[in-house]
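Many introductory courses stop at the sequence. We go one step further.
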Amino acid sequence: MTTLLESRLEEHATPTAPHVRLAPHLLDCLRCPGCSTDGPLVQDVRAHGAEVVSCTHCGSTYDHPDRILNLSNTAHSANPVFEQEFDDWEHNAEHYIHEPNSPLYQLLHTRKTKTFGITGCDAPIVLDLGAGTGYFSHYLANLGCHPVTLDFSPKMLQAGMKSYDLPAAVLYATPPLPFRSESFDAVIANGMLHHCKAQGALGAVLSEIHRVLKPGGMLYVFDRNGAWAGRCLHHFVLRIKELMQNRLTASASASRHEPDFMLEDLQSVLDAGFRIQRQRHISTLPTFATIVATNTLKYAGWPRLASTCQTLARPLLGILEQGLAARCFTVEQCLCLSKTTPESANERRVPESTTPRAVRTNRGRHT
């Protein structure tokens, strides 16, 4: 039976062209979703001339129209939150492909990449998980990395392939991840963990990230920081979106299924086998409010006015990003986490500087 993901991909895809070779680093990382073995998976040429990826163990075949490897599964097809978010991302793909042109997007992107500190030294293989259009994969490729771009939205991946010529793109809904254990030097979770939480899959996804990372590999997270003021502002924004949903032509993160990413969720990340190496709070309340206001102008049909407002506001907001980089004044955070072993479980605790006094009192003294 054709799944929701497969049907959407087929609607917009062109037939797989003959002799289109997938990136070697992608084939080396793959695990067959059909039999959950390491295969290996290889490219075969069929009688009609098109190429598919096939598992040498179970014989399952996977096509790659538009150079997007379709490994789609049905794990979330009956999840109403998944279906709502899937429809939102499909509807807003055109917005996301233009979003990196925004001055304030670039302001936060610069803060984010400086915190992560990723370089192309030794050509690391990086999984960009829940990558959307793959802009961050494009950034990584320009650094000399070998990114693998994974998302569940065919329109997102097709837009990204058209705009960025992504080296390796995979259509898939997780978990489990269709990759071999210890196959990636790093994993990027760029604004996607709170969506995993919404779908009830946070723990499973974190376990899979830990599995596919090499020993000592890095997990780079960008997500909300759970601060009180940021949560209030975010809930206000969601309410405005709900009231205006019939008037706006598009809306980034349109889904109303957007839970906060709280300190206990960060603790879940640490409990999954990670240790914080670096943390920075970004996207101050003024920056976030300006992005929301100007995006609303853009969705309402005034993109030039929105761009002009962002350009004028960027110098001041850039100063505020430097001066108000504390959790209580910001909405989001960047985290650099290293993969650890189960033996270090007692050391994996949210740092005292991150944990509010009330939480510390309830939990007792952290080790």
